[in-house]
Amino acid sequence: MRQPALPRTPSTRLRPRRVLRQRLAFLFLWMAAAAAVSALIAVVAFVGVRAVRVLNIDLLLTSPAGGLSGEGGISTTIVTTLYLVALTTGLATPLGVGAAIYLTEYAGQADGRRKPALLLLSVARFGVETLAGVPSIVFGLFGYALFVSALHFGFSLLSASLAGACLILPVIIRATEEALRAVPQAYREGSLALGATQWQTVSGVVLPSALPGIVTSVILSIGRVVGETAVFYVTLGGSSDLPRSLLSPGRTLALHLYSLAMDTRAFDKAMGTGAVLVLIIILLNAAISLLSRHMLRIRG
Amino acid sequence: MQRRCLIDRLMQGVLLGSALLSVCIVLMIGLFTFLQSRLAWQSIGPVAMLTGTAWRPGSGRFGLLPMIAGSVLATLGSVAIGVPLAIGCALFVAEVAPAPIRALVRPAVQLLGGIPSVVYGLFGMVVIVPLIRRIPAPGNSGYGLLAASIVLAVMILPTITSIAEDAIRAVPREYKEGSLALGATEWQTIAGVTLPAARSGIVAATILGIGRALGETMAMTMVIGNSVVVPAPLTQNPLSIYLSPARTLTGNIAVEISYATGLHESALFATGVTLFVMIMVVNSSAHFLLRSRSR
Predict the structure, then answer these.
(1) What is the pLDDT of residue A266?
(2) Fold of A58-299
(3) Cβ-based neighbour number of residue A109 at 10 Å
């Protein structure tokens, strides 16, 4: 991937004006990168520093006191977030991986000779592309109309996780597709040449070697669910009690942050919640980079 | 022999089914939001809805123009701030940065993309809004389009940076070598060869960023003020329109859906349909560009 540095031009000393222009341009590029990094540092450091006042074991282990007080901790919202992550990824992972397998492994069969297969493939591709662009509040509206109202699931874990699964489906499909494409073609040819069927090749050879990439796609979608607010704001209800069943309403960490900031202006508590969210995202990102390093080492 | 062929056939069907699930979901989303919005389109009329300037659910006025203006203006603001930075970052990471600094910047930008939008919203409320409030202008509360644009700019930066970086990396090395061999400086090569060659990818990245900005919901409701007005300049300076509070299409849905019923609820679904169509148009032009590039 990484290219060796291009040779520097020897004539730079002789033409000061274009050298000056290059200096200015490069200064801008350095500053753009510095701005991005400092935006990150500003957000993370500010949330972290403000959170120190409220962040302690009590906050993590007590449940929100309810009402508009902003008192209490965030324990139930952490548990609800975990439930929702498990449900959405549980629903979307098999479907997303399956779709990615079809789009990469069976795409070769759909050449010009078989028009219907080709058409199906491009329809499926269009679907994934479109779904990836649907704004999350529209997923929320859809979930509200179908799961909450039409199917009478009400504001519940079930409605929220079904809507959330639709949201992360394209995330899983795209990342898994990338992982499958990175598996060397020779692996497949070797397996097929030994007389294995397409499915035996996929399940026995391709999937195992793409596994770290598939895990990455799941981690990505976990991050998406943890940070998502709009979809769950209109499907999960927002009760801060611990959900007792699939049909009980709940409140995730991100929703709790939103309600603390918007309804009660309890900014310190909101910062504490935000710090927990940011910490989760940092850990997930670290897991992804560990995995991708692991993959690079295996491939050499 | 027979059995494994049977399993193979079966699995191909199952996989095809899951591949087509996305399309089904898209169709169902379109169908359900449209069906729910039909009442509003019929009883208010599409023209009256899209051009009406008053949104008063209590008295049966459902005009979406303030929200359309809010969404478009906030998006334009975020593009003005975010796109130059994002393209700068992409060029920096792909072409200019020394390896150790690149190893720092790239994960930082990735992390920036992972931070939940409510955290950005909170940061905007606590840090950016009070700063903007200091700008002297009558009626400036700090909450408004400028705060929204700044928050959005940070949120779309990672999206644009990563796609633009891919496009820049995809420029064949020979192009750059040819330019450098002719005696061009590195910057002349970037500006004259690399950027034009990666142009369609960079434009597509920007368009996808616009789609992302139009769709952002909760962070917007936190900093934009949410008042239903067509944004107007607060002072003589036309740029002060960005100090005006506004409401986005997304925010309109999020703020009101929990208590809306009847025609009001249907009008909110119509808001969703409007948003969906806008984003579909934006995104499909990006995909068109990306596809014509890969050919």
Answers:
(1) 84
(2) MetI-like fold (1.10.3720)
(3) 13
